[in-house]
Amino acid sequence: MKHHLLSSAAAASLIGSLPLETRSAVPTDEFAEAIAAVEELRAGFTGFQTRAEQQLGGIADITARLDDLETRMNRPGGSGGGDDVTLEHRAFSNFLRLGDNRMDAEEVRALVVGDDTKGGYLAPQEFVAEVVKGLIEISPVRQAARVGSTSAGGVILPKRTGRPTAHWVGEDEERQETGSTYGQLEIPVHEAACYVDVSLRLLEDSAINVDAEVASDLVEEFGRIEGPAFINGDGVKKPEGFMQAAGIQEFNNGHAANIQPDALIKMMYSLPAAYRNSGSWMMNGTTLGIVRTLKDGQGNYLWQPSYQAGQPSTLLGRPVIDAVDMANIAADAFPIAFGDFNRAYRIYDRVQLSILRDPYTQASKGLVRFHARRRVGGGTVLGEALRKLKMAA
């Protein structure tokens, strides 16, 4: 057994500090050993405490470094992600913030020049993808229709113009031709343009992600003009909306002012089952508020709220899409559409997005104006998959 002994002077000092009756009851050597053990434990604890404080200080330093790294990664063009941030993306971010006249030569060379007749630079794929993603989130038609991309000025699709016709024949009778006939349907890609103003203070603040701010504004502006075009566009310099397309069957409501529940049921079941079973209703919020009060002949509401998170409410068992650009209820108007929009309507985005930085037009207001242009096309490819309700007797 290892003994821990104090020096005679230390032991004498400690023992001398005790009361007389305690000193006389405890042998000097045993008392000294106990005191030594306590001192050793105290020294060990002090060393442990010192090491723990050093480790905690190291953790705090790591946390501070991570916070600093996160801040730098969130900055536009920040290289916190190393090779994950492409030169083109970093160059485009600095172009938005500084302009090409204040950028490094390497970054200027990385910018892709857009259409010479319009000026500006093409946005990188990451920026374009963010804008398109935002459009899908806010556009009701994009949520229902089939959306694709193209690099051409138009999309040509095959369209069946004649169905095959079968005939009953005898054992040795000549068979007649029964093949389908096809034509072509072209969806032209139109140009949309807008501009957004960003303050100089926002551009100068290195902690603000200017890419996200500009992308958010572009989404709002492009979404605002796309919605009416996809629904009611006439096809002149804009997509043709499905409510204006030929070949979509109209269904009379039976009343010019009040929506009839029986008309909705009949219109829904007038669609072939292949389209009906995957169909959706589309109407604006005002019409939706009226439809929610409708009941069938047994007093049951046609509208059924969703009781499961993430699932839409339904009308006659099919989901409802709230589209602000659908017509209001009025005589001879078409306030409601129903059908399989994914099969019936196509939207094609031109991949390129061009942005021109204009620091002069709004300079007196402390703003920089960004002019943006993109191209999008839309058209009805299968009118038989849709029905629209007309407010007429």
Automatic annotation (TrEMBL):
UniProt xrefs under InterPro entries: Phage_capsid (IPR024455), Phage_capsid-like_C (IPR054612)
Cellular compartment(s): Virion
Organism name: Sinorhizobium medicae
Transmembrane segments: none
Domain of life: Bacteria
The Phage capsid-like C-terminal domain, residue ranges: 119-390
Name of protein: Phage major capsid protein
